[in-house]
Description:
The protein is of the alpha/beta class. It folds into 2 domains: about 10-205, 2-enoyl-CoA Hydratase, Chain A, domain 1; about 210-255, Lyase 2-enoyl-coa Hydratase, Chain  A, domain 2 (Orthogonal Bundle). The protein has helices at about 35-50, 75, 80-100, 115-125, 150-160, 160-170, 175-180, 195-205, 210-225, 230-240, 245-255; strands at about 10-15, 20-25, 55-60, 65-70, 105-110, 115, 125-130, 135, 175, 185-190. Strands 1-2-3-5-7-10 form a 6-stranded mixed sheet.
Amino acid sequence: MNLSAPHDTLLLQRPAEGVLQVSLNRPDVGNAINTRMGQELLDLWLQLSNDAQGVRCVVLTGAGSRIFCAGGDLKERKGMTRAQWTQQHEVFERMSWALVDLPLPVIAAINGHAYGGGLEMALCCDFMYASDNARFALPEVTLGIMPGMGGTQNLPRAIGERRAKELMLTGQAFTADKALEWGLVNQTLPADQVLDQALRTAQTLARNAPLSVRQVKKSIRYGGQMELRTAYRFEVEAYNQLVDTEDRHEGVLAFNEKRPPVFKGR
């Protein structure tokens, strides 16, 4: 995928060196995820995994000022056969898994409401900043379905099993203040400041050693699924892979020369 090429459902921008801003770009329907958006996101995450093209951090947000993502496009799904529904959902599944597997850090800038698949997609990101008037929900049980893009696994890991069960089994929405209190989002801000904060943080991450950032992300993700002693060993193995890198030599040299390091991801 050419990052500079136009897309039907996404808007890609390079607001700062090393930073890619990905905007879900269907504001007329609440940035709902249709088949085309799912495929474009899947292609994007796979492309960045294979060749980052100079990108060191991704910011994921939604077009418009009210809704980050309303979830799956139910109008497109109306009248789908079982085969069509299953085929579409396979695209959504692969898209969310590719996002979780992306070696680059991904910051969600939640500029408005995040419902259903929109919240699930945000949960696949590394962390979130949210508008203080945003609302969140996984309301699938009110539609005769259930979360299917990682929600039943990622939400309990973020806020605890009992609270996640209550939210998913009732389908009730909750506020940005609650999301902050429960540790789901890192910070809430006025709506017009969310993207700026995410981009500032993204620039900080983009200046850090890319291989180090990737190894930290990998160690947290996979180590969290291991018995603790094994996870310690996994961390050390991830650490040892950085010892002979050019960036490690540059970091130490820059520190001793009292200058900012110039990392090249090698």
